[in-house]
Write a structure and sequence with these properties.
The chain contains ten helices and 14 strands. A hairpin with a 2-residue loop joins strand 13 and strand 14. Helix 1 packs across helix 3. The two termini are about 20 Å apart.
């Protein structure tokens, strides 16, 4: 039996990107129960990809009840619906066999990873204060993507002078804005910029200088995205809600690495259940951005364990 239910988790504070703000994470929890064994997965429907709670629920409810993980890859496109079911089936397979997912997938035993911590878009003063509160963290991710980002960037660097910094523009810049900002990004020690131009309008990245690594997020969903990234991007941000689950995410990671891309493993704003499968994917990644639970005021009954910015592999009672 496959069932899907909506869940809502309050955020610790409002989370803002260039496309808007939110105060809660609205997710879908999928449960697969067969032979007396239950597996779970979570997805975050994303309006940017024309997904809603209702549309994703309908996709999941339209599946055959006995569908296998292999058949699922063709039954649904890459996206949130397939992700939740794929991860629930992985969890079910692990619990039914008594072997953890990393063994079933032929992966090495997972180790703790260091995750970025995201500072949402705000006024320069508030972003500086937020940076100062989190200056002890080794890696900060800054949400930008407006024509007035330089004061924000300067403010964050002043608030956290020792932290490593990466920037996510969420498709908010033009080629001209990015070209103007790039020297300042380097001056302030920014290590990577994520999706500076809108997906579908990013051909100019092949024509302008890329003095620091540029990572594809909205432009990269699954392996079918890779041919369109050549010459424009240096890294790919792999998110389970974009790939449609751990199965495709592992294949995308292997192919991206084989083609010379650096790998970032990211997330939507969801609970520990959404992050748990991504911890396996994050092993060996150049950048890990799985801070969703750190942004929440409430989480799953059995949450992931964080020690500062160090994220530990999930307990089997949560997933896998």
């Amino acid at each position: 039996m496959i069932s899907v239910t909506p869940d809502t988790f309050r955020l610790a504070e409002a989370f803002t990107i260039s496309r808007g703000s939110r105060t809660e994470a609205r997710v879908l929890t999928v449960t697969v129960t067969r032979d007396g064994v239950t597996g779970r997965g979570e997805c975050v429907p994303y309006a940017r990809y024309d997904e809603t709670l209702d549309s994703v629920t309908a996709e999941i409810e339209g599946l055959a009840q006995g569908i296998t993980r292999q058949a699922l890859q063709d039954a649904l496109p890459a996206g949130a619906a397939r992700n939740a079911v794929d991860c629930a089936l992985w969890d079910w397979e692990a619990k039914r066999s008594g072997s953890p997912v990393w063994v079933l997938a032929g992966l090495p035993v997972p180790a703790p990873v260091v995750t970025a911590f995201t500072l949402s878009l705000d006024t320069p003063g508030r972003m500086r204060a937020a940076a100062a509160r989190h200056a002890h963290r080794p890696l900060l991710k800054i949400k930008l993507g407006t024509p007035d980002d330089m004061p924000r960037l300067e403010a964050v660097r002043a608030g956290a002078p020792e932290a490593r910094i990466i920037v996510d523009a969420n498709e908010g810049w033009t080629a001209e804005v990015y070209s103007d900002l790039a020297p300042h990004l380097l001056r302030l020690g920014v290590e990577m910029v994520e999706q500076p131009l809108p997906a579908g309008q990013d051909d100019l990245l092949a024509e302008i200088a890329r003095p620091l690594p540029v990572c594809a997020d909205e432009s990269c969903h699954d392996r079918a995205s890779l041919p369109g990234l050549k010459g424009k991007y240096d890294m790919v941000n792999i998110k389970l809600d974009k790939t449609g689950g751990l199965t495709e995410a592992l294949a995308l990671k292997a192919q991206a690495e084989a083609e010379g891309y650096g790998v970032m493993v990211g997330c939507m704003v969801g609970s520990s259940l959404a992050m748990a499968p991504a911890v396996l994917l994050a092993q060996g990644a150049a950048i890990v951005d799985l801070d969703g639970p750190l942004l929440l005021a409430e989480d799953r009954a059995t949450p992931l364990v964080f020690e500062g910015s160090v994220l530990h592999p999930p307990p089997s009672t949560l997933w896998g």
